[in-house]
């Protein structure tokens, strides 16, 4: 699902700094409001003037590059930071559907590792702006963790690639009378109403996960969230460190391949209640006889390589551990 390799701490710090630049700018603008309306207006005007100035310079750079080395424009568009600035100033070379398709390609390794896929059905005009229509296939369409997948993997990638969209609609694989599953209902597992601040959700770098050897299971603590990760061949998988049956920690769990099972199938056994889970297929429980949607399961955590850094998407939890 993700190749190995690490990024230097210096580069990682720089990348983190640019990713959070927008939040810092907004914080400074909000702070200026405390000095009065005039100060706030002048601060916003200054920010707009600087944005326009650098936007005009970027436009000239892109125009000159397009004439002398058009292949470089594609490289600009492939760089997340540069592409984001091109989008702000209307200079991105690709239309919204092409950008969304590229974004979905970036998350397909994660979906595929859980036996699923996602397809772009189209971008349609909505009351508040463009609406993206997606459809999940395979285990993703019925997996209890579909909300997590949509929130952190698919929606994050789509909105970063196409910030002008107004909303995302998920079309059911088997059309129901309504035909659509609202994003809000899918998000309910991730953001219980009035209890979770969506700003707490973020991609967090975890480059050390690449050090896991094939067949090895390791534990990590990211933003106060205990994570269980393992490597199967070249693929890496991450789950919340919580058994789907006894809800206890899976610390001490080991991978094994059931007798007669094909190579590549990996089962994780809870060291406490001895429940078995299919690591490759979204952590599905293997001991239950209930319908698939009612079976116990591990909770997958999105794990992707973002700008060369292996990262996981989690909601920060207050555990008292730093």
3D architecture notes:
Keywords: 2Fe-2S, Iron, Iron-sulfur, Metal-binding. InterPro entries: FSCA_dom_sf, NIF_FeS_clus_asmbl_NifU_C, Rieske_2Fe-2S, Rieske_2Fe-2S_sf. May be involved in the formation or repair of [Fe-S] clusters present in iron-sulfur proteins. The chain is α+β, with helices and mostly antiparallel strands and 322 residues long. The chain has 3 domains: 25-89, no CATH class; 96-173, GMP Synthetase, Chain A, domain 3 (2-Layer Sandwich), CATH 3.30.300; 203-315, Rieske Iron-sulfur Protein (3-layer Sandwich). It is 35% helix and 23% strand. The protein contains 8 helices and 14 strands. The chain has helices at residues 9-19, 21-32, 37-68, 70-78, 80-88, 96-113, 146-161, 183-187; strands at residues 116-125, 130-138, 167-171, 180-181, 201-205, 217-222, 225-232, 235-240, 254-256, 267-269, 276-278, 284-285, 303-306, 309-315. Helix 3 crosses helix 4 and helix 6 runs antiparallel to helix 7. The two termini are 29 Å apart. The relative contact order is 0.12. Mean pLDDT is 76; it is low at 1-12, 175-200 and 318-322.
């Amino acid at each position: 699902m993700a190749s190995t390799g690490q990024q230097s701490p210096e580069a990682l710090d720089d990348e983190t700094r640019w990713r959070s630049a927008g939040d810092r700018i907004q914080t400074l603008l909000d702070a200026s409001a405390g000095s009065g309306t005039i100060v706030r207006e002048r601060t916003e005007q200054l920010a707009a003037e600087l944005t326009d100035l650098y936007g005009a310079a970027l436009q000239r750079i892109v125009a000159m590059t397009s004439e002398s080395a058009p292949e470089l424009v594609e490289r600009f568009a492939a760089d997340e930071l540069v592409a984001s600035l091109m989008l702000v100033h209307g200079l991105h070379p690709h239309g919204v559907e092409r950008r969304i398709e590229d974004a979905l390609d970036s998350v397909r390794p994660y979906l595929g590792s859980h036996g699923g896929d996602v397809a772009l059905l189209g971008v349609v005009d909505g009351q508040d702006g463009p609406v993206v229509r997606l459809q999940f296939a395979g285990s993703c369409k019925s997996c209890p963790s579909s909300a997590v997948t949509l929130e952190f993997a698919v929606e994050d990638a789509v909105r970063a690639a196409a910030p002008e969209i107004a909303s995302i609609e998920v079309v059911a694989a088997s059309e129901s009378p309504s035909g659509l599953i609202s994003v809000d209902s899918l998000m309910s597992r991730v953001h219980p109403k009035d209890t979770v601040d969506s700003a707490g959700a973020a991609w967090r770098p975890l480059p050390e996960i690449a050090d896991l050897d094939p067949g090895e299971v390791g534990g990590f603590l990211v933003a106060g969230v205990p994570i269980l990760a393992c490597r199967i061949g070249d693929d890496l998988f991450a789950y919340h460190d919580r058994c789907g049956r006894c809800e206890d920690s899976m610390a001490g769990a080991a991978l094994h391949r059931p007798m007669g099972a094909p190579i590549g199938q990996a089962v994780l056994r809870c060291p406490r209640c001895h429940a078995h889970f299919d690591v490759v297929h979204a952590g599905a429980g293997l001991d239950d006889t209930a319908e698939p949607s009612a079976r116990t399961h591990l909770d997958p955590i999105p794990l992707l390589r973002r700008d060369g850094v292996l990262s996981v998407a989690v909601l920060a939890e207050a555990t008292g551990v730093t």
